[in-house]
Amino acid sequence: MAGLVPDGAGTQPLPEEPPPAAARQVRLPMSRVKTLMKADPDVTLASQEAVLLTARATELFVETIAKDAYIYAQRGKRKTLQRKDLDNAIEAIDEFAFLEGTLD
């Protein structure tokens, strides 16, 4: 919660401080993400912000596909994801159509 600073007309809120680097909530190693990005011959430079956003987007993507695949694992009365669960999620959900054939 932001604190208050007195001014001539009353009080106004203090500006929010940016979170420290450790609180960015990115679990993937940034150096590995940057290395993978630079493996593309079209990428010569990658700013820290671009690497951070790519890492976060990757985490969200993996989380989404894992949750959707877990539904198929639960239907099979299992708690462990198997490849067939990912295949089923890819086939059933239109957003994952671009992945068809990539796990072969």
Structural commentary:
The chain is mainly α. It is 45% helix and 8% strand. Strands 1-2 form a two-stranded antiparallel sheet. β1 and β2 form a beta hairpin. α1 (30-38) crosses α2 and α2 (48-75) packs across α3 (83-92). The model has no long low-confidence stretch (mean pLDDT 86).
Any key phrases for this structure?
mainly alpha, two-stranded antiparallel sheet, single chain, 3 helices, 104 residues
Estimated share of beta-strand residues: 5-15%
Give the overall silhouette.
Answer: flat
Please tally the helical runs, counting DSSP H or I stretches of 4 or more residues.
3
Oligomerization: single chain
Low-confidence stretches: none
**Helix residue percentage:** 40-55%
The strand order across the widest sheet is 1-2
N-to-C span: 50 Å
Report the strand count. 2
What order do the helices and strands follow?
EEHHH
Would you tell me the structural class of the helices and strands? mainly alpha
Biggest sheet descriptor: 2 strands, antiparallel
Please, what is the average pLDDT? 86
Instruction: Please state the CA-atom Rg, rounded to the nearest Å.
Output: 21 Å
Structure at a glance:
The chain is mainly alpha-helical. It has three helices and two strands; from the N terminus they run ββααα.
Summarize the helices and strands and which ones pair or pack.
Elements: E1 4-7, E2 10-13, H1 30-38, H2 48-75, H3 83-92
Antiparallel strand pairs: 1-2
